[in-house]
Structures are given as C-alpha cells and as structure tokens.
Amino acid sequence: MGVTRATRNPKKSRRHWRIPPPPLRDGDAPGPEGLLVLHDLDGDFGVVVWKMLRSVLLWAETSPSDRGSLFSPDAGQRRRAELLAATHGENHPLLEPMESLLRMMDPDTIPDPDEVGVACLRIAGWADENEFPRTAIEFRQAAALSCPSNPRFALSVMRTARDLAQYSRAEAWFHRSVGLARQCRDWDTYVRAYLAHGTMMRRRGALPAARRSYLKALRRATRQGLSEVRSMTLHDLFVLEEYASNRDAADRYAGLAADSYGPGHRSLPTLAHDVAVAWLQQGYFENSLKVLRSVFPHLPEAYRPVALGSLARSSAGVGDTPGFSRARRDLSRIPPGPGVAEAWIEVARGSLLLGNRAEARDAVRRGEDLARTRMEGQIRFMAQSIFDAIEAEEAAALRQVPEPSEGGAATDRSRLADRLVVLLEPLSSGERAHSAARR
C-alpha cells in the first residue's frame, strides 16, 4: 500500500514571524532598570515613582499564575501612604494613574494588563508634559512589557527612544512593533511603525533607508485601504524627497498627498505650509505666497512665527512691500519662543530682497539675540552669514534665482498651488459657519 502525501494546508503553512525580545535598557544607561527616573524626579516623590515602576516591571515579568503572591498583603497600603506623604496630600495629577497601579499589588485583585498599561502611559504622558523624557520612556516600556502582545505600546516606546536619539533601542522596538502588528494583523500600527522608522532614518541622514521604510508603509496602506495613514505616508515622502533635493518627485508626492487628504482635512494646512516653505527656498515666491496667504489662518499656533517669517520673505520676493511690512509687524508682536528667531532671519532675507540693508541688519540682530538666548546654534550660524554678507556689501548674493516664468515645473507648481488653495477652502467655510453659530 503506497504512502499518500498529505495535502498542505495553506493556513497552517503561513509564515511565523519571529518577535524580537524587548530591550530593557539603553546600552549607556546605568542599572538597574528605571534608575534614570531618579535623575528626572528628586526627593521622596521620585523614589516613590521609581519604586512603582520597579513593581510594575516585576509584575510584568512574573507568570500570571504567580502574581497573586508576588506582593505582601499590606504592600499596596504602605505604597499608598508613601505616595500621599510624598505629594503632601495635594491633588497631584499622578494620583489617579498611580492608584490604578496600586490595585496591581492587591492580592485579592486580578488587574487587567491593559489597565496597567494604560496607567503607565498616563504617567508617561505627564512626564512628557513636564519634560522628563527618561521617565516617559521607562513607563512606556513598562506599559509594553505589561501588555507584551500589544504592538501600539511597543511602537510608543520606539518613538520615544528615537526622539531621545537612543537609536539602537529604537531599532529593536521598531522590529518588535512590526512583528507584533503583523502577528495580530494590526495594519494601521504596522504602517505607523514604518513611518516612524522612516522619520528616524531621515533624521540620521540615511535617506535610502528612509525611502525604503516609507515605500513599505505606502504599499501596505494602499493594499489595506488605510486612507489616513496612506495620506501621512505621501506627506512624509514629499518631505523626504524635498530634503534630498529631488524636486520633481517632491512635487509629485505633494500633489498626491493633497488629493489623498482631500478638501478640508485637518492635516492639509501642515502639508500646504510645508510645500509653501519648500517653494520659498527655491525662489518660487508667487506660488509660495499664494499658498501661505490661504493657509495662514488655519495653522496651529506653533507654526505662526515661522509662517510669518515666510510670508514676509515671499511678499518681498514679489515686491509686495505692504505685505512684507504687515508680516514683519505681526511677528514683532509675538513673544520669544520656538521658531521666532528663525522667522526674523527670514524677515532679514526679505529686507535684502527689497534692498533695505538697515532693516535687514535690525532683523538679523533680533534673530541672533533670540537664538543666543535659546541656544539655537544653527540659527546663529545663519544670522552670522547674513551679517557677513551685509558688511561685505554682498547682499545681492543672497537673492534667490528669479522665479522661472516658463517651463513645465513652474506650471505644475502653479497648478498645485491653485489646488491647495481650493482644498483649503472648506476649512474657511467651516470656521465662518462656526463663528456664525456662536453669534
């Protein structure tokens, strides 16, 4: 009797992806795990937060069947008393999430891992708001360890490690989040992980690696019909190609991103601003000004200073002296903060385009003074280069190449500028309707 070969089941033969183990610490960090919390938080409060972190890590690495006997019966009560003493009885923002974690120490309670993870993320969010980045990453990692199959928690660790320039740690958590997302078919998180990785590679100057990650994200987002993250990916590809000086590719992705976002999308102002600034740097003043004027009312407050500087420079580029003066005046009313020093450098460049060296000198001094106060070295370097050009009577060298009046690229940009203005229009209509309803 012959041996019959069994028919292969395609479902059972699906590839099993290896999930890398989570890296518990950065290579340069002191031990034990979580000790950097004490570098962020001083005194008794810092000690209590660090002890709670250590308890979560211990709970996470213990088998669920053994967690009931992990802590002594009165451990939660003692920790609660320490927390109240450290916060002096005040209504501290961390009391509620810490209370959720204290239930983990109750032998009669079986806490939900998701509840533990969410409480850790709330503590991490508080740490972000108060500029304690090392505490933030430790509690995000605690959340990911408490819910080891959740790819979104893993991705949160990756992003924070990336922003702390802990690149080896970020790379490891990236692969873990991708593996977990593929395993549970969470394609939205899968795409966002590749976007985060592409951004990390772009910041590090590894442009081919960034492009590969972005294109993987684009293919998966398109395949799964994920319109939101597909739009984000096209936007990121525009930024990458513009950074790489691939202008035709950048314009193509900008147009695709604009159409993908669609009329009135909340992310459209950011894209329009990015496109307008890119054109400004290339000397396409008219198209840049057209988009900046349309998008300015819809920009978040954080974008306003840089946008005003760009408005001033693009207005000067087309010879609109009143428009330049208005933007300069509005910028002078904004208090010192992020982007203000850079905006004054743009005003200085606009002054030079109008042939006003005295005004350029004043603007560049403002920018340089602010940059020195905020320790923004790159802005100070830019300011010094303009100073040198003014003093050497070489202001003309700073002028952009005149905007092309003919050619396919110029025509395409003009069409894209018009399209962006049209796509932004629903935002203006919505704001007018909202104002009318309030009246």
> What is the H/E order?
HHHHHHHHHHHHHHHHHHHH
Q: How widely separated are the two ends?
A: 90 Å
User: Which structural class do you get from the secondary structure elements?
Assistant: mainly alpha
Could you tell me the radius of gyration in angstroms? 27 Å
Residue-averaged pLDDT: 86
Give the biggest sheet. none
Structure description:
The termini are far apart. The protein contains 20 helices and no strands. It has 439 residues and is an all-alpha fold. It has a domain at 21-148. Helix 15 (304-317) runs parallel beside helix 17.
Give descriptors for this structure.
20 helices, 439 residues, disordered N terminus
Short description:
The protein has 439 residues and is mainly alpha-helical. The protein has helices at 37-40, 43-60, 75-86, 95-102, 113-129, 133-146, 151-163, 167-183, 187-203, 207-224, 227-243, 247-261, 268-282, 285-295, 304-317, 321-332, 340-353, 357-373, 377-391, 408-438. Helix 12 runs antiparallel to helix 13 (268-282), helix 14 packs antiparallel against helix 15 and helix 18 packs antiparallel against helix 19 (377-391).
